Amino acid sequence: QLQLVESGGGLVQPGGSLRLSCTASGFTLDKYITGWFRQAPGKEREGVSCISASDGSTYYADSMEGRFTISRDNVKNTVYLQMSSLKPEDTAVYYCLAPLLDFSLCVSPSRLPEEVWGQGTLVTVSS
Question: Beta partners for 3?
Fold first, then answer.
């Protein structure tokens, strides 16, 4: 059974950091583009960051550039999202997804059907 499990969310103060994990079972993440997405209350789902399979190329949405870092641990079959300098507007449910056909889906996740999304992990940035 192919499965992705997100973890690592929680409550953090503005300016704080969190590391999210996306662990796969049933397939190996290092063969595919993997992405992190988020959906804030009342807003559409948006792409956060993606990492390629081949050369480790990455994509970051403009508002996350410089604050978030995506990485992979092939031994653990896990992709991470290190988030720093968190802001209240980063509050959202964060989802990971793989495999992605190409990086364009990182920019426009609305093209993906609703059923592909898992439960996600909630990140709340608040004092």
Answer: 25
Residue appearing with tokens 């988020």 = 38
**Long-range contacts, 62-68 (Cβ 8 Å, 24+):** 63/89
Written as six digits, the tokens of 35 are 């992405």
Residue 33 corresponds to which tokens in the numbers above? 């583009």
Separation of alpha carbons 91 and 105, rounded Å: 22
pLDDT digits (tens, 9 = 90+) for 94-107: 999 999 988 999 99
Q: How far is residue 44 from each of residues 15, 28, 50, 86, 98, measured CA to CA in Å?
A: 24, 29, 18, 20, 19
Establish whether the linkage from the previous residue to 109 is cis, with ω within 30° of 0.
no
CA-CA distances (angstroms) from residue 60 to 7, 50, 96, 126, 127?
Answer: 20, 7, 14, 23, 26
Distance CA 58, CA 16 (A): 23
List the structure tokens of 82: 């290190």
Q: Residue ranges of the alpha helices (H) in the chain?
A: 104-107
Distance of CA 126 to the CA centre of its chain: 20
Which residue has tokens 């399979």? 53
pLDDT for 55: 84
